[in-house]
Amino acid sequence: MDPTATILDLHQLRRSCGSCALHELCLPGGITAEELIQLDATVRDKRTLDRGDTLYREGDSFGALYVVRSGSLKTFVQDEDGQMQILGFHLPGEIVGVDALASDRHMSQAEALERSSICELPYTRLQKVVAEVPALNRQLMRIISREVVEEHRHMVVMGKQPAQERLAIFLASLADRYNRLQRDGTRLTLTMSRSDIANYLGLVVETVSRVFTRMEEIGVLEVNRKAVRILQPEQLASLCGMNSRPDLQRKDAS
Amino acid sequence: MDPTATILDLHQLRRSCGSCALHELCLPGGITAEELIQLDATVRDKRTLDRGDTLYREGDSFGALYVVRSGSLKTFVQDEDGQMQILGFHLPGEIVGVDALASDRHMSQAEALERSSICELPYTRLQKVVAEVPALNRQLMRIISREVVEEHRHMVVMGKQPAQERLAIFLASLADRYNRLQRDGTRLTLTMSRSDIANYLGLVVETVSRVFTRMEEIGVLEVNRKAVRILQPEQLASLCGMNSRPDLQRKDAS
DNA sequence: CGCCGCCTTGATAACCGTCAATTCTAGTGG
DNA sequence: CCACTAGAATTGACGGTTATCAAGGCGGCG
């Protein structure tokens, strides 16, 4: 709509790591200004992706790691017959492409859920820099480790949780990440489709829809298409662990 | 039984990375002999764990990464009320402890499934070495990435597969890893309990038991307590993707 | 304005989890 | 050597949560 939007966006894209809003979340976290300059040099470009655009596909040869700068991505795998499994949704400050380090080939696909901008870190350059800046290497490891922790959390969800709990955990986790980004964690924008959410949680889309409805009925959420408002954060939190505490099964019908 | 076993084991433990049987699978993969010497220096000790021993617990402060040298481990998380979720089983050559890099605290627990020996890589030392040996840093990344890929595969399993397929994939994956270790991939030794397997796959122990029985009935496996023999590897492989190809539902009853 | 995809809602059934009993194994002691 | 026990694994009957199938509503976009 606004014709200047694109231009502004381009300006933003050209900002260096030092002035990036993600400064603390991204690789620069905890390194000196001097070291930062070196990192800046490794960031090749800051690509812009439109909704549905693919950042990399399974089988692509590995060239770079990517950091989400704005917008959001989903990563997923697809088996031969087209069945897909979503591995994660990625918000600004999060890294994608790590799974390609093992075999020099991407083992998943990354796709933009909305218009997004991405920092590309060509791996050969990145390697050189991290060799010279140990703190940066440490930070890179830290970020990758964060991915692993996040995946472990997801396994707990997929392991043996009822549907309502899965969705509650998903929303609470999203709210957390919003907070880290200094966004309002009570007003979520679900850039992914319902079936993406369902797939990610190991459910079908109908179940997700039903649970949304139920949560709205009990007053925890206000759902409006992609806009979700968390009305009772505490109760949402309690829904995250309910099945293990039978006495909390019923809602506040004291 | 053999009184010399312990002594031999101790000798083995003292062997350096250079002579380790896991040479190609472990960190040393693809680095020079010279660089290897530096790595040897970082490996503090090679600890021995008995069945049930804990390598680290959730919350422990992070000191080292660990490589399984022999035996096998399980890693898992436990929420407040004691519910556990197994994250993975780890065979020789595989690394554990990566999830601690993010926060300097272990976010899971690692426990030996049998008598195992473990290479401990104190992280401060490891950092120094990888700073000096880029190839080693690369290799470390590669191994961590392998973990991530493995976890992605597991998410596909947990996502939406029927019970039989889950177990089939689990066994096939184990067989693969046996092959990489140059063991006979058709004769598996399940060092973990049935309920460990069930938990890992997001099922209950009864279901796992039933599926084992069914697989034995159709002649794919021969199950004897912890010893599993894969009689028809091809058919096992077909069971891994059956639900999506209806025409393969029935076995070769041509 | 009208199509089309996404989401929602409802009815039915299946797979798997729960509960309960039995068998098997390994470890212990008589 | 064998009986005994405790824990693990198996087997069976049943029920519940969620998938499946089917239809209808809503919003976006040409």
Distance N terminus to C terminus of chain A?
51 Å
> How many separate helices of chain A?
8
What's the total count of β strands of chain A? 11
Query: What is the CATH top level name of the largest domain in chain A?
Result: Mainly Beta
| Element-by-element helix/strand order of chain A | HHEEEEEEEEHHHEHHEEH
Give Rg of chain A in angstroms.
Answer: 20 Å
Return the domain count of chain A: 2
Give me the CATH architecture of the largest domain in chain A, please.
Sandwich
Would you tell me the overall average pLDDT of chain A? Answer: 86
Structural class estimated from helices and strands of chain A: alpha+beta
The share of residues in helices of chain A is: 40-55%
What is the name of the CATH superfamily of the largest domain in chain A?
A: Jelly Rolls
Broad shape of chain A: globular
Pair of chains with the largest interface and how many residues each contributes: A-B, 43 and 43 residues
Strand order of the largest sheet of chain A: 1-8-3-6
What topology does this entry show?
The structure is a homodimer of 254-residue chains.
Chain A lengths: L4 H10 L18 H10 L3 E4 L4 E3 L7 E7 L2 E6 L5 E7 L4 E2 L12 E4 L3 E7 H10 L1 H27 L2 H18 L6 E3 L4 H8 L3 H13 L3 E4 L2 E4 L2 H7 L15
Antiparallel strand pairs in A: 1-8, 2-7, 3-6, 3-8, 4-5, 4-7, 9-11, 10-11
The structure holds a DNA duplex (30 and 30 nucleotides).
